[in-house]
């Protein structure tokens, strides 16, 4: 019997495989593999297709936290886990962080303040903002649901308003260049927060989308979401062209079409059935997607440094991309193996203690 409503779904292995693909798209944003081979395609691939990846991750977070969002202990545990990840990975990226953001013309105190600003308000390094944004988005949703007791309609309305505000402080900011009050406000905002692609204007709307899908799962029917994704993706390509050609080059993080593309992409993947025999592979892909996301820029940094020290060319972007994702996958698999082995050892020790009792 095929699934008709989302609430009937018992497994989400297709989402795990989709996350794995999304991690490669995130890497392609930072290391565009087709830049020299096909510049026009590379631009569309990097600035449109790959931009589905991070919102997709946020929607998954909102969906799987949806039924737990009122559980204070579970939300607290999740947030502390993400915070620990953020601190840990920021420490691992410390040398790249200093290399990128420490400026000789600034005083030591000024540089420390800049690093602190980035750590707390922007994101310590290129892709690590996602962890900071996840904490802010989930915490905000939790407070609206539990502390302020907003209903679903109110939360969705807030998410829409925040996203539109973010869009006009990000991709569409040049629309307001001649509107001085708005232009001045946007300029001030960006001078402090650098981008609207953060937990409130970007993360929260997509986490809310996932939360909405969870609480309304019994009303969401199976449909041609894959075709809808393609349709809205084409519109997003058109939107990107209009922005670039008519409005002015800006950030490509937030489009008006992004929520429609992401919503249909998530639902398309959520309804795809994947058998139990693929369960172990799906779990590995899910874990590996996180490792690739977090590792790839660290691998890229040291790859460039090593090649520079050896006096060798790092290669074109396709070569760089292939090297980085390959090494990231290998390191990720090693980390997953170590983590699973440690978990088995801990479970074994617990069982021994229980038997003795």
UniProtKB/TrEMBL annotation:
It is a multi-pass membrane protein. It comes from the Bacteria. The keyword Methyltransferase does not apply. Residues 13-337 form the Acyltransferase domain. GO terms for biological process: enterobacterial common antigen biosynthetic process. GO terms for molecular function: O-acetyltransferase activity. Its main location: membrane. One of its GO terms (cellular component) is plasma membrane. InterPro entries: Acyl_transf_3_dom. Pfam families: Acyl_transf_3 (PF01757). The chain crosses the membrane at residues 12-33, 45-66, 78-98, 118-143, 150-168, 188-213, 225-243, 255-275, 287-303, 318-338. Keywords: Acyltransferase, Cell membrane, Membrane, Transferase, Transmembrane, Transmembrane helix. It is found in: Cell membrane. Belongs to the acyltransferase 3 family. This is Acyltransferase family.
